[in-house]
Amino acid sequence: MDSPDFTEREQQLAAVYDKMHAARETATIVSDLYAQAMGDVYPHEINAAGAVDWPLIATIVGALRLEPGHQLVDLGCGTGGIGLWLARALATHVTGVDISATAVRIATGRAREFVPAERARFTVGSLRATGLPDRHANGLVCVDALGCELDRAAALREIYRILRPGARAVVTSGRRRTNPVLPPWPEQAAYAGLICEAEEERPHEPLLWQRLYWLWIEHETDLRKQLGDEPTDSMLIEARTRGATLDDRCSLAVTLRRPEE
Question: What InterPro entries does its record include (predicted)?
Fold first, then answer.
């Protein structure tokens, strides 16, 4: 994706995710392996490429406190599953933003399965520059995307900008238990003008990823047949490098709020 609003690294990242989403669009193996790894907490209809499970959805619904007609933003939306599911369940509008034009195309095509056309919109943008108006959102979700943004502070400032005063965001985040690189969440939030209302640890999530990574490695041949070599190589590199760090990982669902004025 060649965009004047994207840095060189963002353009490279967009190209990687374009290839990944294109490969997974017609394949079933990835969702099958996620379902196998998650068991009965896997929300099949959402079909997310991340650690989206029923406990996380419950946390999001309870934290955002959205009302019918409100505006939800799904930041780093991928193919749109969680934002569309929430929009239908809570009778809201949803705007999804993702760095991958391919993901945005797929999400747009899925929207009619969940909500009327006028209640869903998907657009290409980055976490630090969504292109959305100021004070656009009554609530925001950002699931398994924040770790891809090198400038965490810029992404949090963008979340502050697009939230309405008093509105909340739920972001998922991982950190090391020993020698964490980033400051504590209350400090990160305050730097962006936000309030950290809650940090909910998800102790089962590292085990979920471990099971998934084992399945990716075990099913390498099938992955190559359905996805091709390049996406499979990327998945196996992730499984072998990130998998080795999971024992030290603390997975969180963090609730942030823009203060009232």
Answer: Methyltransf_25 (IPR041698), Methyltransf_Superfamily (IPR050508), SAM-dependent_MTases_sf (IPR029063)
